[in-house]
Design a protein that fits this description.
The complex is a heterodimer of chains A (about 120) and B (about 750). Chain A is α/β, with parallel strands linked by helices and about 120 residues long. Helices cover about 50% and strands about 20% of the residues of chain A. In chain A, strand 1, helix 1 and strand 2 form a beta-alpha-beta unit. The radius of gyration of chain A is 13 Å and the shape is globular. Chain A starts with a strand and ends with a helix. Chain B has about 750 residues and is of the alpha+beta class. In chain B, the strands form 5 sheets. Chain B has a 5-stranded antiparallel beta sheet with strand order 6-5-9-8-7, with helices on both faces. A 5-stranded antiparallel beta sheet of chain B has the order 11-10-14-13-12. A 5-stranded mixed beta sheet of chain B has the order 16-18-19-21-20. The chains are: A alpha/beta (about 120), B alpha+beta (about 750).
Chain lengths: ~120, ~750
Amino acid sequence: MERILVVDDEIHVVRLLKKFLTSKTYDVYTATSGQEALQKIKEVNPHIVLLDILMPGMGGLDTLKEIKKINSEIPVIMATAIVDEELAKRAMQLGAEDYITKPLDLNYLENCVLVKMIQLLD
Amino acid sequence: MQPMPKYKNITGVITWLVAIVTAMVIIISPLAFFFHSYQNLSAMMETEAEINAERLTHIISSNPDYWEFEDIRLTEYLQNRPKSGIAERRRIVNKKNIIVSEDADALHSPLIMRSAEIMDSGVVAGRLEIYRSLRPLLKQTGLVFLLILPLGLGIFFILRILPINSLMLAETALINTNKDMETINNLLHGKILECRRIEEELYKLNEELEARVAERTLQLSTEIDEHKQTEEALRNSEKKYRLLTEKMFDIVFVMNLDLRTTYVSPSIKAQLGFTPEERLAQDVHEQITPESLAVVLDVLAKEQELEQQGDVDPERNIAIEVEYYHKDGSTRWVENIMSWLRDDRGVAIGIHGVARDITERRQAETALQKSEKKYRELVDFLPISLYEMDIQGNIISGNPEIFRTFGYVQDDLKHDLNSFRMLISAQDLGRAIENMKGIITGEKTEGTEYTGIRKDGSTFPFLNIAGPIMSGDKPVGLRGAIIDLSKQKQAERELQNVREMLLQSEKLAAIGRLSAGVAHEILNPVNIISMELQILQDMESLSPDVQEELNVCMGQISRIVTITENLKMFSRVQGKKMIVANINNVIDYVLGLHATQLKIEEIKTEVHYRPDLPEIVMDREKIEEVILNMISNAMASMEGKEKKILRITTDKEILPGDRDQLVIMIADTGTGIKSEDMSKIFDPFYTTKEPGKGTGLGLSISYGIIHDHDGLIHVENNEWGGASFYIKLPIKTDMNEKLSQE
């Protein structure tokens, strides 16, 4: 089973994504802060990380840098509010694989994840 | 002198001469013709008669006795004549004048007859007579006369008119010359008269002069006697005075009537530098300046006149201020107190007086005058209106500025401009009068604002600062200054406008900051709801009804997202992508995007691009958004209208100081903007569209974008019933030139 780590400070977002991705047969792990995310990565070594940019405490961009330090190979998809596309572009410069905008289009998200997985398998 | 009769005479003579010539031509020609033709005819007839007579002679000789009875043969013969077509009568007459034979055509009188004798062996046997009518000849003559008549008349006119014309020309020239001559003559005559008059006058004057000279000579001889006497008296008086005056500081002097100094006290040395001896040798011209001398002479002349009237105090003093020369070349002002010096009979024989140096006083006076003049000039020069009026409010005086301010000239003071009431608007008048009363009673004021009325009726605001004019303890009037506030008020208004614009920008910026935060906060819950809905939608057990409702929910979610996106634009965190572009291309591109929609909504477009517009630095995407906004608004406002025309023009406005700008007009034929909406139209969330049709952010975003480009956007209602939006963008062509707000 492909492991996905979902990181978002909104508990409902985390819950819904887990529900959705589980239904699409992924193995979903969750974290609600940057610190927790880093810990989870070390624990489960996910195939893909879905990371929210705006989080209290350690923000998405900082978390991204730290993830890249732990394992630069893990693809990180950034989730950002539609009004913050500029931030997402900066994240891309910092090594993020891709970005999706909130409100999330779940179908798009699924396609996005699927494509990354296929690339990983190659 | 009168040329007319001569002229008429000549005309008459010419007329007569020409008439005679003409008559001769007219009469002589037909006559000549007649005589010539008559001669011809008669000769011809004679010849014919002779020839025929010869022939007849032959016939007769063959039958000498009975030829007279052979009338048939003879008639035949007579008939047998050349066919000339001319009517003739021929008859043969015997010796006894009896017609033997006759052949006759009808003939009209008058007749001409020619005959030849018929001989029989040398003896006259009879006569052959040939008659013809003269009428054809007369007719021809008549014809010739008729032909010659116009020729004759022509000759008459030419011969008559040509000389008369030249005569008239000569006449006119002559008349003109004559007139000139006459004028000159008159002038000369006048001069001669004048000369004679002058001569007479001269003669008279000469006589008078001689009389006067004689009179004067007599007078002089008496005067010389008198003079000797007065000099004698004067010398006596002098002796008395000398003792008195030697020790005085003031100059004491005595002069005779010729203004020759006959005595002067030694104090002159201290005051004017001259010794008394020097003084006595001086003429009056060497003592005082020409200006002063004129004054002195004038005063003395008047005094002498009074003297002659007699009705005055003989001991009276005359005070004159005189400018004397000092020995060092400078001048001194001296006050002279003089009185007449009289002989025993009381007749004035000279002047004596006391003189005191008043140069210092005079200098102080001059200085005062100068200072007053300077002050006056200063007042005239001041750009502040100054005035004085009496206690009734009548204007007494004012400096040029106050007249300029109120549009009057100084002279108006003498005519219609009298009261201050004319210069203050009616509604301010009561207040002004109250304030005046206060000022006169000593109230202090900081100045009061009034509305002034100019001569032409226009009004303007001014500030009046006034104080009382006191005469002793009593106020006698008001004196004040007026400052025209129109420029200041204008500046205040402009400032107010700038403030309002600034407020609008600040308002938008504040809303921008607020909305950026709000956008984030809203997006989070929306995100969750959106995901919930998507998960719900994925459920297979849902009925189509529920599916439909969920779709509606998803639709509303996208609406919220659009609103938050628009809100976000206020914060304008996005970077600018400045490029150089032509505004015409930008508009063309946006119009292209809307082409189909415009067609569907049956909107006609009238686009006028100014072709030579420079490319300017802009955030092309943002400007496209503004144009798009404008077009969308225009389209929405024309919905349901019968006439739908979208007009777009681009132009360049030339402004001084390198501030040229592009002007884009986007006009519709929609409903226009109500005046109460005008001020709010660029406010965020302000919309006239139905709920759900617009966010009310389009125009405020456009406002922000144009503002970021240092441009201006404003709206007016137009002649077609709709609204016209004007966008003005500064012409900046240098990419490195920074826009104001980064």
